[in-house]
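#struct-help
A.M.: can someone run this one for me? Single chain, 63 residues.
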Amino acid sequence: MNFYEADFKLNIVKEYLEGPLGGRALANKYGLSSNALVYNWTHSYQLFGNDGLKNRRSPPKIY
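D.P.: on it. Structure tokens below:
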């Protein structure tokens, strides 16, 4: 599972909301596994602001 930084998510959400590109085009542009990520991040941002983009779980520890 990939974990993306909140700043990275925010940049994509702002580009989606302000620009002409759709979710699929942005997912392709940034190499995301699914365009649903763009829509989910946008929805979370609209509901909760920047807090909606923070990771709720920590990434796995590598030993």
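A.M.: thanks! Helices lie at 6-18, 23-30, 36-48.
D.P.: also worth noting: The radius of gyration is 12 Å.
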